[in-house]
């Protein structure tokens, strides 16, 4: 059997870590793609990873390229292309810069990778994944945004540290847009099956919810650029579930057609990812407060999507 091909669009910080995880897990051969001025950088990073694999024992091949033909036939396409956030910027500030990039990627993906399962990481996430699907016309099962997996992981970590327990025992779903009004669901958050409210006081939980919502901005403020280890790990969890048909239940930005009362919108919801891509959207029962928070988040997403729709290209 031939190995899967995984095309990573963007060879920056996230792209490099994605490639590293693909090699470590031996998920398939990797194409680390970037624009022509950065082709040598992509080739150098790929060569470095291949040399490291000789020590780790991985046989996955890694190439750097600026030629879309090298991505042809990819099973998975993970898109990080675009400008990362800088201190003081919101994700929405990146629309003007990153919209032409995602459109170019969509056009080439449609030509060279028509059967790929696509994971979009580029910000503003919910708008970029929406535009990719609109531009390609691909089925909603094939195009997903990496957001909820990252937001849930941040919340999971903060809760585990506060409760003094293993992160493996925390389940902490986060819904909504990938922004400052995302919706961590405390009613559905558990630590080894126990309601989180029995182990962490309400006031502290509120603090952790606020920190989760600002999680990306906290890292930008500290590093001067966007996070990359955790976003890469989130995308690889999704890719691995697809490639190995694991049918994991993960929070991801999925295209909604009536679920949760929303249509023609990408937003973070629980989904099952298997060999068919997004195989199911899980609709949780929400109370009035949760519905109101989700409506606010959806409104923020819709605002930026409306800007994308009005932008020619």
Description of the structure:
This protein is α/β, with parallel strands linked by helices and 313 residues long. The chain has 2 domains: 5-145, NAD(P)-binding Rossmann-like Domain (Rossmann fold, 3-Layer(aba) Sandwich); 148-308, Lactate dehydrogenase/glycoside hydrolase, family 4, C-terminal (L-2-Hydroxyisocaproate Dehydrogenase, Chain A, domain 2), CATH 3.90.110. Helix content is 43%, strand content 20%. A 6-stranded parallel sheet has the order 3-2-1-4-5-6, sandwiched between helices. Helix 5 (148-163) packs across helix 8. It is globular. The model has no long low-confidence stretch (mean pLDDT 94).
Q: What's the count of strands? A: 14
Number of domains: 2
CATH superfamily of the largest domain: Lactate dehydrogenase/glycoside hydrolase, family 4, C-terminal
CATH topology of the largest domain: L-2-Hydroxyisocaproate Dehydrogenase, Chain A, domain 2
Task: Please give the oligomerization state of what you see.
Answer: single chain
* Helical stretch tally: 9
Q: Which stretches are low in confidence, meaning pLDDT under 50 for 5 or more residues running?
A: none
Our measurement of the CA-to-CA distance between the termini, rounded to an integer number of angstroms, reads: 41 Å
Identify the CATH class of the largest domain: Alpha Beta
**Radius of gyration of CA atoms, rounded to a whole number:** 19 Å
**Fraction in beta strands:** 15-25%
Strand order within the widest beta sheet: 3-2-1-4-5-6
- Per the principal axes of the C-alpha atoms, what is the gross shape? globular
Task: Give the topology string: H per helix, E per strand.
Answer: EHEHEEHEHEHEEEEEHHHEEEH
Biggest sheet overview = 6 strands, parallel
Helical proportion, percent range: 40-55%
Mean pLDDT: 94
Q: Based on the structure given, which CATH architecture of the largest domain is correct?
A: Alpha-Beta Complex
């Amino acid at each position: 059997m031939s190995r899967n091909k995984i095309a990573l669009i963007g060879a920056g910080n996230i792209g490099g870590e994605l490639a590293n995880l693909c090699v470590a897990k031996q998920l398939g051969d990797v194409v680390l793609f970037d624009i022509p001025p950065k082709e040598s950088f992509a080739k150098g990073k790929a060569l470095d990873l291949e040399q490291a694999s000789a020590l780790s024992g991985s046989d996955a091949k890694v190439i750097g390229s600026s030629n879309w033909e090298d991505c042809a036939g990819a099973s998975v396409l993970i898109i990080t292309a675009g400008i990362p956030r800088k201190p003081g910027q919101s994700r929405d500030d990146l629309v003007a810069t990153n919209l032409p990039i995602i459109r170019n990627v969509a056009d080439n993906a449609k030509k060279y990778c028509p059967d790929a399962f696509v994971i979009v990481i580029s910000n503003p996430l919910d708008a970029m994944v929406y535009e990719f699907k609109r531009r390609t016309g691909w089925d909603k099962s094939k195009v997903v945004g990496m957001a909820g997996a990252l937001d849930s992981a941040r919340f999971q970590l903060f809760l585990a540290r506060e409760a003094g327990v293993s992160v493996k025992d925390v389940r902490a779903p986060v819904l909504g847009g990938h922004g400052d009004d995302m919706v961590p669901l405390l009613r559905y958050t558990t630590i080894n099956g126990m309601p989180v409210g029995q182990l962490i006081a309400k006031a502290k939980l509120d603090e952790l919810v606020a920190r989760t919502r600002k999680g990306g901005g906290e890292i930008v403020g500290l590093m001067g650029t966007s996070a990359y280890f955790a976003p890469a790990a989130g995308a690889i969890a999704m890719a691995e579930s697809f490639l190995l048909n694991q049918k994991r239940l993960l929070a991801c930005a999925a295209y909604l057609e009536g679920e949760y009362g929303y249509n023609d919108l990408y937003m973070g919801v629980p989904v099952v990812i298997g060999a068919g891509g997004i195989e199911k959207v899980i609709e949780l029962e929400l109370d009035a407060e949760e519905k109101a928070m989700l409506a606010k988040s959806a409104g923020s997403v819709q605002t930026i999507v409306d800007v994308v729709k009005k932008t020619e290209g």
